[in-house]
Write a structure and sequence with these properties.
Blueprint: H1 3-6, H2 9-21, H3 28-37, H4 48-71, E1 76-80, H5 87-90, E2 97-102, H6 104-110, E3 120-124, E4 141-146, H7 155-168, E5 171-179, H8 181-187, H9 207-211, E6 216-222, H10 227-230, H11 235-245, H12 247-251, E7 254-261
Parallel strand pairs: 1-2, 1-4, 2-3, 4-5
Antiparallel strand pairs: 5-7, 6-7
């Protein structure tokens, strides 16, 4: 598994960590996989504060996916860069067609823990290979989860991915997290992903420019760390967590956008 693919273990650890604590995110599958596949993390990767942050991010994506499925029960769900994540099990709303997509070596591990069915599928997909989007199933509406992936794509690659999804589907709903340019520069020197060998990431300062000409527009910006999730932490932990992962400083580094077709 290459360095970029190894980054999937950082959020996996975070989700298993909070799940064992019975807060924020209940993820028995993450606990199971980490127990078998996990390794000793170094530096910030094993920080409980980062674990809380990763779990809250996942929970926000879960809740958004649930809401989108409630509004669009017949939609195709497309999770690009799924890693070993168990969102397909965590969502509460039923779905008729879910595709978890990643690189072949990631899916090789994933298939040891997940079984395909009439409604759940795994597919090899490189986010930079937009021609592969044509091989996805036909449909009118797609719910696209881009969690922890945009920072490994150039702005041109991200724009091409969004445009290809819009060309394939009439109604597109996307949630994606992005580093800012400042956040990307800072991350090259000081980021948990450095602990698994990744040193190059990309940032987005103008999400509207990414959307321009793709047939998709920004509709909202969300918080990674909503108050109701922070409140699940112990009172003595909340203040320090807020200092690290909320406020204007954090917003200068990392942002979460919702997009939809025009």
């Amino acid at each position: 598994m290459n360095e970029v693919n190894k980054t999937l273990y950082i959020p996996l650890y975070g989700k298993s960590f909070v799940s064992r604590k019975d807060i924020i995110l209940h993820d028995a599958k993450a606990e199971e996989i980490w127990a078998k596949e996990g390794f000793e993390l170094k530096g910030k990767s094993k920080s409980k504060w980062l674990a809380y942050n990763m779990a809250m991010r996942a929970r926000v994506f879960d809740d958004w996916t649930d809401q989108m499925l409630k509004n669009n029960p017949d939609a195709i769900v497309l999770h690009i860069g799924c890693g070993l994540d168990s969102r397909c099990l965590r969502v509460k709303q039923p779905y008729s067609c879910w595709y978890d997509c990643d690189f072949p070596d990631v899916l090789e591990v994933r298939r040891q823990y997940y079984q395909e069915s009439s409604s759940y599928h795994m597919m090899e997909l490189d986010a930079t290979d937009t021609e592969k989007i044509d091989q996805l199933p036909e449909g009118n509406t797609v719910i696209v989860v881009l969690e922890g992936i945009s920072m490994y794509l150039t702005n041109d690659q991200l724009k091409a991915l969004i445009a290809s999804l819009r060309q394939k589907y009439l109604y597109v709903h996307v949630l994606l997290d992005v580093y800012t340019q400042f956040g990307a520069r800072a991350s090259e020197k000081k980021n948990p992903i450095n602990d698994v060998g990744v040193t190059k990431v990309y940032g987005v300062d103008d999400i509207d420019a990414i959307c321009e000409g793709t047939g998709v527009m920004k509709t909202a910006e969300h918080s990674f760390t909503p108050k109701h999730l922070i409140d699940e932490l112990k009172p003595v932990e909340r203040g320090f967590f807020k200092m690290l992962f909320t406020g204007k400083t954090y917003g200068r580094i990392y942002r979460l956008f919702e997009l939809k077709s025009i």
